[in-house]
Amino acid sequence: MKTVIKTSVAVVALLGTSAQADFSFGDMFKDMKEAATSMSTDAKDSVKVMTDGAVETSKSAERTVTNVSEDAKDSTVKISDDIKTMEVNTSSAATTATTSVSSDAKDSVKTTSTDMKDSTVSVSKDATTSVKTVSDNANSTATTVSNDSTTAVKTTTDNASSTAKTVSNDSTASVKTVSDNANDSVRTISEEDYAEYMRLKNATK
Length: 205
What we know:
Low-confidence stretches: 17-21
Oligomer: single chain
Shape: rod-shaped
Number of helices: 2
Mean pLDDT: 76
Strand content: under 5%
Distance between the termini: 218 Å
Radius of gyration: 78 Å
Helix content: over 70%
Number of strands: 0
């Protein structure tokens, strides 16, 4: 400010000096005062304009911050609502899925249990039938074997008796034949030996 005033005084002095020789300090101070007043008014206006601009900028920044804050709040509320809705949907879906899986598992276990029961009953009946059939067949086979054995033993005994009787008869006949033959042989040999003996005896005389 002081620099501007000094510069103005110098300019006015030079102008006044070159324009006319009858220079007046009163006019100079008047001009200086007017210049200073004008400069002060301009500076005041500039400061006011700057202040107004700063206030407007501050208000704009405040409005911007307010808008951003409201937008952020709305966004946060919206995101929170969306997350809550998603959690509710996820929870409901999980509950439904769990219920469905539980029902399916229950039905599956029930069906499996029923099938196993039916299979066990069927296997038990088949096993009983098979055991009874095998037992009946074993009894029939044992009876048949027993009857066949009895018949075979009786046949063998009869055959053995017949064979023994035949062998006994044959042996008796053979013994009798051998005895008769032996007697004949002894008798034949004795007669021959005697005749030979007599011949030899007569020959030596």
